[in-house]
Design goal:
306 residues; mainly alpha; 12 helices
Length: 306
């Protein structure tokens, strides 16, 4: 099934995915790859913060991500000038501004609260899709997204209880989540028209312009560490380059609401790595939440219905 190109007269627009059927092996493969890369990013960010200020990490990861995507010849294929405002907006809302806001917010909000709030991205993606498409998602997708979010809450509750946060920090994260939800929708018609790489490369260049000044300012107070510098390589090349390309491909295929359920798996990967690498313990309720996430994701991945 094909979809029409993006409406040239509208800056904010989206379309349905090209695949309205149940997820196949390729869609599940994309989802699993995204979850594994972004789930492991928390470990690399923690290592980076041992020596670098947050702004330095953000600038480094966007710079490395841009360089990684630029290595693919397809990333430099031309795009219509009329679509550049949409691509620039995508770079600002999906990469540049949120990746700057999150480290600032985490000065006042615990990582557990941050993770739970970030998991609202599929809900926000579905809300933006409803607004832009002027129709509700199918009942399976709505049910699956809802069950998955309940699962994320169950996973997060043991860590959130007793953690500290401020209204400003929470507001910054929620603002980033709203941007993520809109961005997944904006990426759909652009990916369908050009493919992921040409769109993402130009979006990352815009993001780099946004994050670089803050990163340079935050060099003051940072110190050099080979360990922290090495952690930037997978965080940038994989987490900000490859994973965003995979996510752009996924939402182009299955639509923003269904594609964004990949975010639900990120905390599960992060928890699993915490247990394996850092010998952390997991509360029993988190296992219940993980089952709910898996069940919700499976329901949302089924064939879209009215």
């Amino acid at each position: 099934m094909t979809t029409p190109p993006a409406n040239r007269g509208r800056l904010l627009s989206t379309t349905s995915g090209t695949n309205l059927d149940a997820f196949g092996w390729s869609e599940w493969g994309l989802l699993a790859s995204i979850a594994l890369i972004w789930g492991s990013s928390f470990l690399f960010m923690a290592v980076g913060l041992e020596a670098f200020n947050p702004g330095v990490i953000t600038a480094a990861r966007v710079l490395l991500g841009t360089a990684a995507v630029a290595l693919f010849r397809r990333s430099r294929l031309p795009v219509d000038r009329t679509d550049m405002p949409r691509i620039a907006l995508l770079g600002a809302l999906w990469i540049g501004i949120p990746l700057t806001m999150f480290p600032i917010a985490q000065q006042w909000v615990s990582s557990a609260v941050t993770g739970m709030l970030n998991a609202a991205v599929p809900v926000m993606s579905a809300m933006w899709a409803t607004i832009l498409l002027k129709r509700m998602p199918g009942w399976r997708q709505t049910l699956g997204i809802g069950i998955g979010f309940v699962g994320i809450v169950l996973i997060s509750v043991p860590e959130v209880v007793g953690s500290s946060s401020t209204a400003l920090g929470v507001a910054l994260i929620l603002g980033a989540v709203v941007m993520y939800g809109l961005s997944t929708n904006l990426a759909v018609p652009l990916q369908q028209k050009y493919g992921a790489l040409p769109v993402l490369f130009r979006a990352q260049l815009v993001a780099l312009v946004i994050v670089l000044p803050y990163g340079l300012i935050q060099l003051n107070g940072s110190e050099w560490s080979w360990k922290s510098a090495a952690a930037m390589l997978p965080l940038g090349i994989l987490g900000t380059g490859i994973a965003f390309a995979l996510m752009t491909t996924l939402v182009g295929r299955v639509g923003a609401a269904r594609g964004s359920i990949a975010i639900y798996f990120v905390p599960i990967v992060a928890i699993a790595l915490g247990v394996i690498v850092l010998n952390e313990t997991v509360e029993p309720i988190a296992y219940v939440g993980a089952v709910a996430v898996l069940g919700g994701a499976w329901i949302a991945s089924r064939k879209e219905t009215a």
